[in-house]
Amino acid sequence: MGAFANLGSFFGENLVTIAKKCGYHQSNILILEGKIEQLQNEYPNVYKALNSCTHHRDSRTPLQYAQDLVASWLFEDYILHLFSEKGLNIKGDGADKNREILSSAKVSASSDTLVTYNGHSRPMELMTDYGGYWYRTGLLDLRDSKYMKLERTKSLLLGFSTKDNKFLLIDFAKPVPSKYIASHFPYGGKPAYQISCDGILQLFNIDNIINQIKMLF
After folding, report:
1. Sign of CA dihedral 3, 9, 10, 11
2. pTM beyond 0.90, yes or no
3. Do the beta carbons of residue 112 and residue 80 sit within 8 Å?
């Protein structure tokens, strides 16, 4: 189950209500409400962009993909808000930082946040496991070229397992062993890199997360 199906219980509130409080664009509200025909009529460019993202949505329908995407933005904004409250300078740095559905050609594999500490900045990718896969299997899967991109840019990878209330932090400035999978079923048969996360999942604590990030500068 993805972000849309799981985050309502995490927040304890309807995602549409949260999105409206956060000032999300009406097109995103329609997506969360499942009003795909109204989206097509009122925001045809968003609808067209959504239907172009066949590579990214795997086996999901366009609506399911869009609902998971908007729900994941809500969770990411929640995390960024927590960091901001604790004084860590972190901001959206990816192609979707404006919270707009983009066409497939404009979707970037770049890390989606930039974290700054003591005058130095590093790209950081945020990932979320909504179904407990990491904890249950001890494995973390990175789709397509994301592993190589993180390695090339020496990014941090900050992951959250919402079901288990845990997190992990991986520094790609150091070698990160992985297993290449040429055709990974959960990603619709597309390639993936698989990383062992045994022993690196920790209990979610925002102060601990921030302290560990600072130590990697």
Report:
1. positive
2. no
3. no
Determine the Cα–Cα distance for residues 111 and 143; give it in Å rounded to an integer. 13
Spatial distance between the Cα atoms of 170 and 172, rounded to a whole number of angstroms: 6
| CA nearest neighbour of 144 among 100, 187, 96, 112 | 187
User: What pairing do the DSSP bridges indicate for beta strands 156-161 and 120-129?
Assistant: parallel
pLDDT tens string 154-203: 999 999 999 889 999 999 999 999 999 998 877 778 899 999 998 899 99
Contact 66, 102 (CB under 8 A): no
Does 49 have pLDDT greater than 60?
yes
